[in-house]
Structures are given as C-alpha cells and as structure tokens.
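Contributing new records

If you add data, match the layout below exactly. Sequence lines come first and carry their own label; structure lines follow with theirs. Keep one chain per record. Anything else will be rejected by the validation script.
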Amino acid sequence: MATIKKSQVREAINEYQAKAIKEVNERFFEKKEAFRVQILKQEPELINLYEAFKKVKQVVSGESTLADSLFYGCFRELKVAPVCNTFEEFENYIKNCVAWWSLPGFSELEHAHESEKSEIYNEYDKVRELMKSIPSTQKCIAELEKLGFDLSDLKPEVTKAVAIIEVDKTKLGLVKKDN
C-alpha cells in the first residue's frame, strides 16, 4: 500500500515558503518603484538635468578631440548611455543610475524587506522542526493542517515502473544441471 512520504510534505512546505517569499519580493519591488518615482517627481531640476544630459551626450558622442578627452576622462559612461529622445526615457534611464541605497528612505525600505523575509524563513524553520519532532507522517500532516497548511492535494507516491529482470538460474549455481 502506498502512503504519503514525509519528503512529499517537506516539498509542499518548501513550495509554501517560496510562495510567501515571492509575495514579499513582489511587494518590495512595487514599493521600491513607487519610492523611485516619488523621489524623481520631487526633483525640480530634473528637466534641466535632462536638457544638460542631451547637450553633453551630443558633445561626448562627437568626433572631436574634446569628445575623446571627455570620453577618457569623466564621461566614459555617458558615451555608452542610451539616447533619450523623450523626458520619460530619460527618467527611466536615471532610475537605473541613481545610488538609491544612499538615500535614507530607501535603506529603511530595504531593511524592512530583509526583516520580513528573515521572519518568514525563521517561521518556516520552526515548521520544519515541528515536522522532525513528529515521527508519523499522518500526525505531522494533521498538525500542519491545524496551522493552516492545505495538504489535501498530497497523494501517495505510487511506483510507476516495475523492473522485469530475467535471471538464468543455471548460472547462479542454484539449479543442478541434468547430465
């Protein structure tokens, strides 16, 4: 008779943990994007920076001696920067250039995210310890369901392949040969 194995229960718990972490990460990326947009919207000089960016990009990308000197000097990254034809393209480019981690609000956001993930990992470690402390798989499933896990989808593993092996009994030395 096939039964549910504890390894199946562990896999189900791992899937629940991965789902919880994924949800936390998605919320963090939404908050991070909102933070970036808010900071950029509050910057009154951003349009002036865009105009200056276009002018400097044009000079650095040129064929003059000054362009080469600027390229090998402080504007190396600017030459390979994308051409931003619109202000929106420039905003998207700038989002990836700003050292967001240096802003206090962003550091707090990241810290909260890491703390929340750490709490999830700690709670799932407790669940795994509970699983180890209960020797019976069925009792373990019952306890986990009391905690709120839905393990009703777990089905007993059934071996799907049967090995068919032909053995030559005469070569085993167990059967006496007829003279």
